[in-house]
Every structure is written in C-alpha cells, then in structure tokens.
Design goal:
Order of helices and strands: HHHHH
Largest sheet: none
Helix content: over 70%
Number of strands: 0
Structural class: mainly alpha
Distance between the termini: 32 Å
Radius of gyration: 14 Å
Amino acid sequence: MENWTPAEYLHLIDTKFYEAKKNKVSRYSVEWGTWSREMNLILKKRTKKTDQDISLKLKYVFVYWILKSQVLEMFYRSKILRIGKRIRLETEADAIKDIIVNGKGTSLSSFEDIAKMMV
C-alpha cells in the first residue's frame, strides 16, 4: 500500500465503501477504521516525501475518503433521510475522483484552495 498510485487508493476506498454499505457498517466501526487508519498514516507520510503533483493528488485522496465516509454513515443511519445531502456529497466525491483520475484542478496547492473550490 505504500507505493500505490492515487488511483489505486481510490479503488481501495470504493471497494471498502461498497462492502461496508452492503454489510450495513458504520464509519465508526472497527471494520472501516482498521484499513482506513493504516491508509491515512501512509498518505500522511507520502505527502511529505513525494513531489508536489503526487502529494496534491494524495491530499485529494484524503478528501475523497472523508466524503465517502460521510456518505457511508448516512447509509448506515437511514437510506431515506437526508437524501439531498447524501446526493450532494456523492456528487462532490465524484468531482474529487475526476480531479484525481484526469488531473483536472491539480494546480491547486493547498487544502484552502480545495475547500474554496468545493464551496
């Protein structure tokens, strides 16, 4: 997992998300927390070591993981309540995924720039 590309991290997040959604797991559960903690520690180390372009994409992976975690919690609580918010979060996650995969928006240099883009 330490030498993965950002796209491989996205695939891992998506796979774990759909497994957790199928098994009705909360984002606060041990199942979700175990692998995500390991991934986040590796991402934190790699963002400090790698070049700026890869480092920025890894920061986007972290943002993507946060959004998918929030969507997972909404599915865990209720499939019916807060559908609008869930759809909005899923749309934002898809936009972040598009940025990582296609390289659009990688000129943004900080979390503040990313946050401004999402507002």
